[in-house]
Write a structure and sequence with these properties.
Helices cover 42% and strands 23% of the residues. It is an alpha/beta fold and 308 residues long.
């Protein structure tokens, strides 16, 4: 009889490509992964891994069993979803991934409402960029993820996932108090064009991240070749650089928090906004825990005054 947890370990190794990657995906130690795989090899009576330089690779038998493991795990997840749906109660553990501003501005309210309405459901949250969290949902490492894209640049969603819109998050441009445009804070309905920042340095996200690619794409679309002077992951760090006069940055409203006194926020007339949505595996659509979490997220989004 093959052990399901050992099959999960083999599946994680096949998906992540390394023992350390499998350990990270399963939230266990590399030693635990190695022990589970060694036991699985003894169960099947033949080697499943072979040395490959400093790492390992799957043998032919390992690849064959990994393919079966993926199908078995998918069927088990479907069975769990059906049983949970039959019971009609949101219970157990729900693993959620979210990008940083959603972690601050949306998830705390949603999780509090979820705990109040479904005390037997435990939410476990991981902060991740949208591309990473959606991939984790596809792999089965997460149950639900919060993701974003932009009104002029959409993020592809894998076919295995279902998504629902939660809110539109408008953004401002943050400039130093002494910036030439700082006094144009704008009247209601009036904003500033991105083209007016053609001569500015920008503080952006890490290269390769979706939001960084969006910024470069958007500025070039207005005829600006962006000058990315500094890279900072967190919005609060970006605003600190702006206050020091080191450039300008995009400042989303979701999860913004207090703005440094030396920063001015300028509304953008180009209607720059982010779409925030939740994604989950289509084969988990019947799970009451997923439905309960999505309902709580919608309520929290509506409470921000920017939800559907």
């Amino acid at each position: 009889m093959l052990n399901l947890e050992r099959l999960r370990t083999l599946d994680a190794l096949a998906r992540h490509g390394s023992v350390s990657g499998a350990a990270d995906g399963l939230h266990v130690t590399t030693s635990a992964v190695s022990q589970q795989l060694a036991k699985l090899e003894r169960e099947v009576g033949q080697p499943l891994l072979a040395r490959n330089g400093r790492g390992v690779r799957l043998t032919d038998a390992g690849r064959l069993l990994a393919d079966h493991a993926a199908r078995i795990i998918s069927q088990v997840e479907l069975a769990q979803a059906d049983v949970e749906a039959q019971r009609g109660c949101a219970v157990g553990e729900l693993r959620i991934g979210a990008f940083p501003t959603a972690m601050r501005g949306l998830l705390p309210q949603a999780l509090a409402a979820l705990r109040a309405g479904h005390p037997e459901l435990r939410g476990r949250v991981r902060e991740q960029e949208p591309e990473e969290s959606m991939a984790a949902v596809v792999r089965g490492d997460l149950d639900l993820a919060l993701a974003i894209d932009w009104n002029n640049k959409r993020m592809p969603v894998p076919a295995e996932l279902t998504r629902t819109h939660l809110l539109d998050d408008t953004v401002d441009i943050a400039v130093p108090a002494g910036h030439r445009l700082a006094d144009r804070t704008g009247s209601p309905g009036v904003g500033i064009s991105l083209a007016e920042f053609a001569d500015d340095d920008w503080i952006s996200w890490n290269e390769g991240q979706f939001c960084h690619e969006w910024l470069v794409f958007t500025l070039r679309g207005t005829g600006i070749e962006p000058r990315i002077a500094h890279i900072a992951e967190e919005h609060h760090t970006q605003l600190a650089f702006v206050e020091a006069g080191l450039g300008v940055c995009v400042a989303p409203k979701l999860g913004r928090g207090p703005v440094p006194p030396g920063v001015r926020l300028l509304p953008v007339c180009d209607s720059v906004r982010r779409h925030v949505y939740a994604v989950w595996r289509a084969d988990a659509d019947r799970r009451p825990s997923i439905r309960a979490a999505v309902d709580s997220l919608r309520q929290a989004a509506a409470g921000l005054g920017r939800g559907d």
